[in-house]
Structure formats: structure tokens, C-alpha cells
Specification:
Elements lengths: L2 H5 L3 H23 L7 H26 L3
């Protein structure tokens, strides 16, 4: 998933995306270790999506903390 697509999501959608990607990553990791997955590049794609989503979530947290009250 691209950064632009992730940025458009709401906070709840972002949390759901992180959770779903972590589950998919774990499942794919197990499948790769048991030689059931043919394309191991999927693992990297899941990791990158998780990292991008966590980065956007953290940026939003920081923006909320720094916002004048």
C-alpha cells in the first residue's frame, strides 16, 4: 500500500490496517518457513506497509501533542 493511500485513512482505519497487516505478516512468515509461499517478497511488502502506517500514526500523535490547546 502506498503512503498516499495510508495518509488518507482515519485514525481508526489506520489502527485496523496495522492490526490486519501484522496478522497477514505473521501468517505469511509461517507459510514461508514451511515452504508454502512462493513469493517471499510479500513479507517485505507487509513489513513496509506496517512501518508506513506506524509512522503516520506516530506523526499524528506528535501533531496532537504539539497542537496549541
Amino acid at each position: 500500500m502506498k503512503l498516499v493511500d495510508i495518509s488518507k485513512k482515519t485514525d481508526q482505519e489506520l489502527t485496523d490496517l496495522i492490526h490486519a497487516e501484522r496478522e497477514a505478516y505473521a501468517k505469511t512468515l509461517i507459510e514461508s518457513r514451511t515452504k508454502e509461499v512462493k513469493n517471499v517478497k510479500v513479507l517485505g511488502a507487509h513489513k513496509k506497509t506496517i512501518a508506513r502506517a506506524l509512522t503516520i500514526a506516530r506523526e499524528r500523535e506528535i501533531a496532537k501533542e504539539e497542537a496549541p490547546e
